[in-house]
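Example 3.2
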Amino acid sequence: MRLSRILLLAALALVAAIVVVPGAVAGNFDEQRMGCAGEDPAICPTGTTGQPYSIPIELLGDEDEQCAVYSVSSGSLPPGIGINSDRISGTPTQAGTYNFFLTVTYNREASCPFKNPSDDPFRISINEGLPKLTIGPESAPVGTMSTPYSLQMTASVSDAKTWSIVDGALPAGLALDASSGLISGTPTTAGTFGFTVRAAMNGDSRSDTKALAITVRSPLTLSRSTTPLVTEVGLEFHYALVAAGGTEQYTWALTGGTLPLGVVLLPTGELSGVPQESGRFPFAVSITDTEGRVAAFSGRVLVAETVTVFTTQLRAGKVGRPYRARIRALGGIKPVNWKLHRGPLPRGVRFDRTLGRLVGTPRRPGRYRIVLEVTDALGVKDRAVFRLVVQDVEKKKKKSKRR
């Protein structure tokens, strides 16, 4: 029992021997070689916020620096500064006076002799430096050809500075104001233009650069195709509105008027369907691209009744007498063309395809069955069957004389 107590007391004594008590043991640091002056504390070189700071950690000449491990056992280093291997270094971020104990301990490796830790008090003062210059923004908005554009460069320091383009080029039509940092103008060419802006303080050496790119789009336009906006009841109708420019990804909307019953605006910008009513239908359509550009178009769809042959019968003709009969059509889209689909016609009579007329002087009597066809400007057709009677005038005269 007595032996165990002796061993315990020896262990506690060993632990107490290696506990670091700031200021209790004279340190092994060589303050002069570190660039610091005096002792208790050693005053190290003054730093400035925003500017790199570095001093070496040096031990007295007989110390084995290969086995040394450095740390701060009390107090604190200036914010932004730390121990990096055998140097105190970093970029201080806060002004002030910082007191700390720098401690050295030694590795417990076979090649390193046993040594007690030691520490020394140090002081580092940090002066307030000039604030760092940082310019922005991080990105540039997209522009549109022939539309005024403006981009204000920003800076973390408000004092006077000079702005310039040091790499690349702005889009044609834009310029950078050297004193205000405003990029403005009216772009004249579509594309993506990369460039680097530099801001340099007029009163000191601070500067910063920012790489940016401005994308310029073509204007967003919406127009009609060359096909007329006309159709007929019951005829399949397709009409494409032509969009161009912008991001070429569009959202379509019917913003005014009405389309004929049976016709709709598709997401592709096409008017499509089979109209079920005739009339004139004014409408308005708009498109919006993914960057908010808007274009609009107004038009009118004309829906005609289906073309039909209106005339139902022909008057009789007489041999040797001039004959004229006009065939009429209703509906459809003009002009219309006529055709003798099936005949024959009486000798001496012909059919005018343009006017839809039977004209001439019949030479022989008889009954003639003919089929006439009308075709309108959209290619829609209709046919009708007619019976044309040609009477013999001479026989009628002979019968009159016998009586």
